[in-house]
Structures are given as structure tokens and as C-alpha cells.
Amino acid sequence: MKTRYVILIIVSISLIAGCITQFIPETDESSDILVVEGLITDQNRTNRINISRTLPLGRIVSPKPVKGCNVTITDGNNATYTLKESPSGTYSTDSTSFRGRVGGRYTLRIATGGRTYVSTPMEMLPVPPVDSLYYNRVVITESNEYGNREEGCQIYLDTYDPDKQCLYYRWDFAETWEIRLPYNVQNWRCWITRASEEIHIKNTSIYDQARVTKYPILFVTNNTDRLKERYSILVKQYSLSLDEYNYWEKLQNVYENVGGLYDVTPMAIPSNIHNQNNPDEIVLGYFSVSAIAEKRIYIDEQFAGMPYLYNNCPADTIWGGSYVFIEGLNSYVWVIDDHTYDIGNPYRVITFSKECADCTTRGTSVKPSFWQ
Closest by alpha carbon to 175, among 309, 361, 371? Predict the structure, then answer.
């Protein structure tokens, strides 16, 4: 999840930006703020709670993990599960002994530094399946400066809860795409996976039906090579309560509109976690509980105007057989075409860009288990 990074970045930007001369308001730097992020699901998987503290203004913004906490989750039957810390500041459930269930109520408790923080009891609401995940080809321009057509891909989703138990939705996704180097090298085929960073939510309580139609989850442009070979997207759908929907809506507003000294800051976004002995203490973040529905699609179509990233790869050609020695080979010079054993004049084509000779500089050569 990207929420804690959004919170930490926005806290600093919104307080120190907006003036030509940097202005840092007076603040008690000893009272750093607790940031909690966690999601409990109905999936047979490890659930993680990330606990950190904000840094004083004027310092580089990055999470400051809180180590050594005693973190527990209690369900509606008063069964308590203790989470283990690994790595620092990340507390995880044991997937063999804990799994959330629809209709269950869960409370997070954190003990650290002589303070105890407790969440509001959160009910796991049911979530309907993603009815359909589909895409449309989009013409970006009919004719670019070279007279060529350029296209992108708009991805949509539909969902519907006939029982109206899920009125508030949230989605995130993971993109995976295949890349292929146009050279006869060892690592010529790789896969890249990227998680979504934007906030996607929808309120259907204002409609007669809990239906979402043609929600634009993502537009894939032709500025990258995502659609060059093969592309896949996995969308996860979450069910939210009204309070959590309001939290994500305010966070979305901050994420999209931050930029000035007087913009809304995360300080104004209520958390569902509080200090048990001091309710006035500010806590950032949210303890989420949700069932999950998933859907994946693959896109194999060819789109016009995809970029070719390897025009400048070949740096030189070295003529001769395998006895030719190239100083610095595998350090700052890489072979991208080896013809030392060809009949006729043997040669090797070299490059100074490792990404031209090894696709693992961008992704992994290990084929994902889900890749069809």
C-alpha cells in the first residue's frame, strides 16, 4: 500500500511549500505522529500491519519504522491473535492460524512506548464479484509528426451487488507486462510488475442499485512499452463501510490537490485508531477490514504507435573471432549480438547500455506463476 508514503510526503509538502522562501511553522518536534496502515481480508494469506512515525519537518521524508510493538487482533468472539514483527515496523499474521471472515468484527491493538492504541471494531462486509473487466482501444492521434497513428488502451470494470450489502467500493490493481529484447542474449525475455498508486473509490448509495458500470480503472498510454508484447492487469475489489469510504475520499482529495501551504492535510482526516488514554492525540492511517474479489485479464492485441526503446543500443562492432579481447567486458561494455562463430567474417556487436543486453535491469526473467 502507498498510503503511508502519501501521508508522509503530503505532511511535509503541505506545511513547507507555497512560498519562495522556505517557511517551517513552529512545531514540537518531539511529538512525532504515529502512522498505522493495515488490511485484514478473507483471503488465505498473511495480513500485514505497518507501523511508523512521521519525521520532524525539514528532514528527508521517509517512513520511520516503530520497532518492538506488541500488536494483536481480537475478533468478535474475543479470540486474540498476536502478530510477529518482520521486517522492522511490519507486523504479520500467521496464515495458518488467522483468516478473516465475512461478518466478523476485528479490533487492532498496539502497545508501544507505554502507550496503547486501539482501533474501532471493524466489520468485514461482503463484496460481490467483479462482473467484467474489459478494455477499449483509444486513438490518441490519427497522425503524429511522422504521419503514424498512435493508440492507447482504456480499461474498465463493471460490478453489481443485487443485495445492496456493498454500497462503497475501493479498487487497486497490479499490472504485469512482458518485454523482449531484440538481441540474442541470455536474459532477453522478462516480466515487469507494478502496483497501482492512485486511489479508486465509488459510492453507489446515492443510486437505486449498488451497480458500477464502465468504471475507468486505468488508461494505458503509448508512452511506455506496456502494450508492446503482452499485458495483464489484476484488479482487486474491496467493500468499505461509510466511515472508511469517507477516509479514502478525503485522502484522495489530498493526494490529487496538495500543493499549497493552506491545502487540506492528513491531520484533518480522522483515523479509526486512537490512543486509549489520550483520545486527543493525532494518529494517521487506517485499520481496514474487507473481503476481496479479484479479476484478471490479458491483452494480446497490437496497438499502433508503441515505442521502440532500442534504437540507440548498438555502440560499435568488433570484427574478428572469439580471440578478440574486449577490455571491461561485463562491466561497462556488453555484447548484444555474438557472431564469433559465424561462417565468414566473425564479429560482435557491443553496447554501453546494460538494459540493452540484460532485461533483468527492468524486470525479472522468472516467468510469473499466473502467466498463461
Answer: 371
Under 8 Å between Cβ of 336 and 313: yes
Residue 67 has which C-alpha cell? 520497532
Rounded Cα distance between 59 and 146, Å, is: 47
Biggest distance spanned by C-alpha atoms of the chain: 83
Does residue 153 fall inside a structural domain?
yes
- The domain in which residue 34 lies consists of 3-124+242-290
Per-residue pLDDT reduced to its tens digit, 71-122: 999 999 999 999 999 999 999 999 999 999 999 999 999 999 999 999 999 9
Parallel/antiparallel/unpaired status of strands 283-289 and 34-40: parallel
**Backbone φ/ψ region at 367: left (φ over 0), alpha (ψ -120 to 50), beta:** beta
- Identify the CA nearest to 334 among candidates 313, 319, 363, 365: 313
Residue 82 lies in a domain: yes
**Domain total for the chain?**
3
What pTM, to 2 d.p., does this model score? 0.84
Q: Beta-carbon neighbour count of residue 145 at 10 Å?
A: 6
357 lies in some domain: no
Does a structural domain hold residue 100? yes
Contact 39, 244 (CB under 8 A): no
Task: Let me know whether 159 and 85 are in one domain.
Answer: no
Q: 155 and 113 in one domain?
A: no
**CB-based contact 296:370 (threshold 8 Å):** yes
Map grid coordinates 518536534 to a residue: 29
Write down the pLDDT at residue 346: 86
User: Which of 123, 71, 107, 89 lies closest to 4 in space, CA to CA?
Assistant: 89
Domain co-membership, 219 together with 149 = yes
Is the sign of the CA dihedral 233, 171, 15, 33 positive or negative? negative
DSSP assignment of 64-91 equals: EE--S-EEEEEETT--EEEPEE-STTEE
